[in-house]
Amino acid sequence: QRLRGRSRFAAVRAGGVEGRNSGLRVSLLPNGEGFSRAAIAVVRAPGSVQRNRARRRLRAAAGSLLAERPGYDVVVHGRGDRAEGTYGALVAALSAAVDQAAAKVRA
To answer: Can you tell me the distance from the alpha carbon of 43 to that of 51, in angstroms, rounded to the nearest whole number?
Structure first.
């Protein structure tokens, strides 16, 4: 599912924990639900085509990844040029960032 609204974005950024990996930053906040919601923010893209491509790729990677990790609100911040690599590398980087943030939540 998608996380909507500026107030929810701000709540995740302010109250959540961060994980970083390869130009991706993930803010994670437990939501107490049986599912995860994600929002994607892409910065530093040279144009709208690259920004939208990066957003689509990050959304696909986050959707498949967060289906395995229910119970979080997640904001993924990515650079527009980060999504140009292989899809497997993108999923691996996103997975590492989410795991890093989830470990901080559990600690």
So the answer is: 7
